[in-house]
TrEMBL record:
Domain HTH araC/xylS-type: 193-291
Keywords attached to this entry: DNA-binding, Transcription, Transcription regulation
Keyword Transport listed: no
Gene3D superfamilies in the record: Homeodomain-like
Organism for this UniProt entry: Nocardioides luteus
Protein name: AraC family transcriptional regulator
Pfam family, one: HTH_18
PANTHER family named in the record: ARAC-FAMILY TRANSCRIPTIONAL REGULATOR, TRANSCRIPTIONAL REGULATORY PROTEIN
Entry annotated with the keyword Oxidoreductase: no
SUPFAM superfamilies, sorted: Homeodomain-like (SSF46689)
InterPro entries (UniProt xref): Homeodomain-like_sf, HTH_AraC, HTH_AraC-typ_CS, Tscrpt_reg_HTH_AraC_N
Amino acid sequence: MTTTPLEELRRRIEKHARPDQTTAIEGMLLARADAVEAPSTNGSGTVFALITQGRKRISVGDRVLEYGPGQYLVASVDVPITGHYSEASPDRPALGFGLVLRPAAVASLLLEAPPGAVAVRNSAAPPAIGVADAEPELVDAVVRMVRLLDRPQDRAVLAPMAEREILWRLLTGPLGANLAQIGVADSCTTQISRAVRWITDNYAEPFRVDELARSCGLSASAFHRKFQGVTALSPIQFQKQIRLHQARLLLVSGADDVATVAHRVGYDSATQFNREYRRRYGEAPGRDTSRLRSLSAG
């Protein structure tokens, strides 16, 4: 019986996947989940992710996306997402391939691309995250890259070539405009990415939207519209999600009590912090922290 590329990819991911998802090829990730777990919030990173078995569901702001075998995700901006594998079991684990997207590699391909081969949008940025069906050529390129894990003598030469082919297939596919934005220095996505990075790095600090807009070369109204178009959140909502995520990490680690953590992440009012934490995670900070710690201990 002939093995399909997707079946070969499943077999190789099962063989090489590690708990930390890293591999011997820099930037290439392999994921395995043996059970459906509770949704968790993390940064998306800028990444291409292909599911070969199981399903994954993520939410970005008010948007909910789900993708399964033979489908892929492209994240062009590192935004907070809440997600989990919605189908996974020990007998049929969820399996996925990931590739960290490097702006320099994308830019290099854009410079070499024939005119009109890649759609590049500078005026209206696509959403930070998109999902599409993987074409056979893209799956074939991913398989060839994963095969290199069993051929260490070929990795140094062939891994960069495999990365370029994968990026090219993505650029000429249905999410090409999403990926192209990463490699264009003055693209709208790049402008919004700078703002996302500033808020993420300075989440405890207050800011004025008009000042952040000026730093990106945009008017306040255009900045707000484009920021929400990319992240599915307003700048203030985005900062709130980052603050609450960081607070949850601090509370689970036992770093400080609730009031101290609230202040550390930028809240002047512990009451407001408690109210927004409950709205975000469904429980008061103390109760949520106790539950998470008991899950870790178990």
